[in-house]
Structures are given as structure tokens and as C-alpha cells.
Amino acid sequence: MGRVTTTDRRAVLRATAGLAFTTGCAASGAVAHPVHSSAPAQPPPAPGPRHLPGLPTQLTHGPRTHPRVALTFHGNGDPATARALLREAEQGGARITVLAVGTWLDEHPEIARRILDGGHDLGNHTLHHLGVNDMSEAEARAEIEGCAQRLRRLTGSIGSWFRPSRAARASPLVERLARRAGYPNVLSYDVDSLDFTSPGAPAVSRKVLGEIRNGSVVSLHFGYADTVAALPAVLEELDRRGLAAVTTTELFS
Fold first, then answer.
1. Structure confidence at residue 39 as a pLDDT band (50, 70, 90)
2. Mean pLDDT score of the chain, rounded to an integer?
3. What distances in angstroms separate CA 221 from CA 7, 12, 24, 240, one per listed residue?
């Protein structure tokens, strides 16, 4: 999608800052003085986690009474595939949730702002994407807090959500560590696309569309061509059914 992002605007402002001068009359010997432009405004901090009174700590789905669903993506893999998926989502009128791996953000720091500029949610999927439920307390804390630190450095917040790596649900220890790190809830899901098995785009579409319903939270992944290819058909069918693909924050609002 041909959008001018906040990053593009900042680059243009930096390139042109300080080039404007007020020029006096040459005949009178006036000296030109630079016009000091103010520094370009920084983007506001990204939204952080919200408290959701009355809901369980581990969230598998949103309200079944509203025709809304959340497509959530594990943020890892080739950034070109990620950008292609973001374009497909935006062209289809969808807003998604990305749970990013910390080392992926280290390698591709620009992707965090790209996700937020598209109106999507961004959250924490641990630092190294290892089996966090099987770790010691110290190791699991480092995984959760390490990714939170990357998100804060890049976006000004620890992200909207936390999802454990290599598990649909967090162990009691990981749940407790996530709360301590600032995440009141753990984001799970009720529909697993199985796209990470590379079954082909039609199979991904059938799996998602066969199980999705009001309030569903769907687990998908960046980094897989099948997922990018399946998304337009999924969004078209959701639209036909009257189901809006919204961010997880919107789903629970």
C-alpha cells in the first residue's frame, strides 16, 4: 500500500531541516540568517497493556456476542514476507495483532514502527522463541523481560499483549512472571491455523474458516508464504459472514 509513513516524514524533515534561510537585501549588506526549525515531533509511545476486570488471566477468545475476530501473528521470519502480509491485511481492511520475538526486533527494528503505523497491535512473544514453559524461573523471566525491553526501546512501551512461546497457554510460573513484567493477561487462542506446518494456502484457509466464529482469536505466523497467500480469501469470507477482523485490543474493548 503506497502510504507515507511517520518514518518517511521524519526522514524528509531531517533532510530539509536547517536549509531555509532569511536573505536580506544584498545592496544593503544584510546578512542572511538561518531559520531554526524545531526538531520533528517523535511519535507517541505505543499503547501498553490494559487491565481487563472480570476476565480470566489467560484469554482464549473475546465476547461471543459481537461479530468481531482477532487475527494474531507470531512475529518472526523474513521481514519481506511480514511486510507483504501487512499489506494484504490493510488492503482487506483488517487490523491484526503481532506478537514479536525479541531477537527478530533486534535484526529488523524498523518493523515495529511499521506495524504500529498500520494501526495494528504489537506485543511480546519472548526474546528467543524457545519453550518458555520448560525454563527455570530466571530463564523465563529473562525471556519475557528481554523482549519487553526491546519493545520499550523501539516503541516507548512494553507492548499491548504477552503470548508464551512454543505453547498455547502459559504455565502458572510464566503467567506470574508475565504479570510481574507488566502484562495483566496472557493471550492464547481458540483457532490454530497450523500454517507453520506449510500445508498450502487452501488448507490454511479451510482450517481458519472452518473454526472461526464470533470472538475468536486465531493463531497465525509471519514468515510463511502460505499464510500470505491464504489471507485474501480468509478476509473475503470473513467480510461475507459479517465478521470484522480487528486488533485484540478492539476485540476486548
1. low
2. 88
3. 25, 33, 60, 24
The answer to whether 245 touches 94, Cβ cutoff 8 Å, is yes
Chain Cα centroid distance, residue 87: 13
Q: What distance in Å separates the CA atoms of residue 194 and residue 141, rounded to the nearest whole number?
A: 28
Question: pTM for this one?
Answer: 0.84
The CA–CA distances, whole Å, from 194 to 25, 32, 201, 202 equal 71, 65, 11, 12
Residues 222/25, Cβ–Cβ less than 8 Å? no
- Residues 191-201 have pLDDT tens digits of 999 999 999 99
The answer to whether residues 216 and 202 touch, using CB atoms and an 8 Å cutoff, is: no
- Taking the C-alpha atoms of residue 29 and residue 100, their distance in angstroms, rounded to an integer, is 59
Per-residue exposure over 139-168, b if at least 16 CB sit within 10 Å of its own CB, e if not:
ebbbbbbbbbebbbebbebbbbbbbbbeee
Q: What is the spatial distance between Cα 66 and Cα 43, in angstroms, rounded to a whole number?
A: 32
